[in-house]
Amino acid sequence: MVAIKRRKFLNGLMTAGALVAAPRSFAGARAHVVIVGGGVGGIAAARHLATHYPEIAITMIEANPAYTCCFSSGAVLADLRERSSLDFAYDRVRQTDAIKWINARATRIDVEKSVVHLSEQETVAYDRLIVAPGIGLDFDQIDGFDGAAQVRFPHSYVLGGDIDLLKSRLAAVEDGGLVVLSVPARPYRCTPAPYERVSMIAHYLKSHKPKSKILVLDNKDEFPLMDRILPAWDRFYGGMIEWVPLEFGGQVERVNGADGSLVYDGQTIRPDLANVIPPQRAGDIARASGLSADDGWCPVDPVTLQSLLAGNVHVIGDAAEAGDMSKSAHAAASMGDVCAAAVGRLLTGRDPMPPAYDNACYFLIAPNHGLQVGGAYQAEHGRITGTRGFSSAIGETDMTRAATAAAGDRWFGEFTDDLFG
Ligand SMILES: Cc1cc2nc3c(=O)[nH]c(=O)nc-3n(C[C@H](O)[C@H](O)[C@H](O)COP(=O)(O)OP(=O)(O)OC[C@H]3O[C@@H](n4cnc5c(N)ncnc54)[C@H](O)[C@@H]3O)c2cc1C
Predict the structure, then answer these.
(1) How far is the CA of 160 from the centre of ligand 1 (A)?
(2) Which atom in ligand 1 lies closest to the alpha carbon of residue 157?
(3) Cys-Cys with 62: which of 38, 86, 102, 310 at CB 3.0–4.6 Å?
(4) What pLDDT score does 27 carry?
């Protein structure tokens, strides 16, 4: 149970019926929805509102001029996907007249005055706000993770170009070198992603530097589909990968950016490359604006994704505490749709509908060898609760795994086309 710092908005917010606001579109004034963060969740919400609620004015505030996907970046490390295929311009979304676009970083949200600050002087007022900033990285939880260490140990776990840094550092590893990848405790963005990354780095090393080793330092003792992934690592990569769970000292205790060393289980090692993925929390703007609880994530009503800590503010995507649902692009888009539908109905004087969320993650263990995991979710007992799950089975044929890999490729194409096309 998360500790809630501010309770004054809680009264009366928990039931969907109590959330209904009077329609704002009176005397010619259009209700105004502002969205902070034009990533997966934010774009999905904006597009849903623009399509279904032309009577609502929409403003998007996005810090970057273009979007770079984290998803499918593993395949870039293995030379199975072009780096440029991760980049998406906002041109098509920006051409939608219904969405006013502000290319700026929101610095603060004043939830009392219902305004978003772009600077101390410049503000944007909202009737309802959707906050979708993704994750923030909690470097302080690992001793020594200062600016120098962040360059020395590229995490490559948020948007932007540092997949290029990780890839160039991988290319510089000598045959016979040691690559370390450290995985944080849950919750973190896309639970299977670090294991896909290990697989893709292993594929690259096997192809180019086959005497190299990978040490996986894990902050937990189990991970989803490990009974399918560990045997597949043995099959495809022989003894190249060693996985060290928490109970055998898998936690990184300290990193040193000056000499490239890291400490785990009382030992100091100096790998040729270390991809240290830090612990995570809601994106900085959500935390700075009082939308997150003590655990670092933003508690939300499961029907509308309205913040439990601020009125007329909704939080979606990775930043939200989403019950049984994983933090993934597919889940963020699903939350964007649910939230936009709820906001649209609330602003036009109707009750929100019971939500239906879904999630699906595809990931590669080797070329043409894919796994999948996902499920369906609804609002139950005050939280987002799984109602159905699916995953790749143990002992599937290579043909099935190849079909899953192809389905993952198709998912990427269709998903990004829906958002940015
Ligand atoms: C290596 C890796 C592999 C992954 N693979 C998959 C996968 O296979 N399938 C899958 O479904 N998911 C995958 N994911 C997860 C997926 O990338 C995230 O879950 C998804 O991007 C979350 O969407 P979001 O909208 O919450 O955040 P984001 O997509 O990160 O978007 C946040 C946006 O907010 C903007 N922003 C932040 N702060 C501000 C501010 N103050 N002002 C203005 N703008 C701001 C950012 O610029 C950004 O555009 C993977 C992640 C990683 C790291």
Answers:
(1) 10
(2) 53
(3) 38
(4) 43
